[in-house]
Amino acid sequence: MILTRREILGAGGGLAAALSLSSLSVWAGEMVEIKMQGSDDGSQVWFDPIGILIKPGQTVRWTNLNPGNSHTTTQRPLRMPKAAKPWDSDYLLPKQSFSVTFTEQGVYDYYCVPHEHAGMVGRIIVGEPEAHGWSEMVGANGDLPEQVLKAFPIVEDIMTKRVVRRV
Length: 167
Hints:
Blueprint: H1 5-28, E1 31-38, E2 45-48, E3 51-54, E4 59-64, E5 74-75, E6 97-101, E7 106-111, E8 121-126, H2 129-132, H3 146-151, H4 155-161, E9 163-164
Parallel strand pairs: 1-4, 3-8
Antiparallel strand pairs: 1-2, 3-9, 4-6, 5-7, 7-8
């Protein structure tokens, strides 16, 4: 059987379309990685990235890559959408990980229990805050020290950049 040029091009176009559709569905469910890290001397600790924008249904996995420390990813009920459930990974030893799938749109602020005072905090935005009139966690900031509040990336920066890394 000999294929014409038109048949070959048509088959190639169909394959390209199928591949593009499958990559879209993979992207929607793509796992997002956040690293828990620290300096060699233990003087600094951080999440990387510290701010991310994801779509509803995506999963975030935190992995402790800091050989000298255990860390947590913990969420306070006051600093998340009302319909969402808070999480607490408990202490993760080096190389351990913990995952959460986000279904509720909103802004989620989280922290590391033993290192929050050192500014080990992060922010996840699920969905589009502008469309829902979300703000910078109005009324929920009173429970945090000023140095911790300064460590959170700004919602607008996350929306613009999609990923905010530690500076």
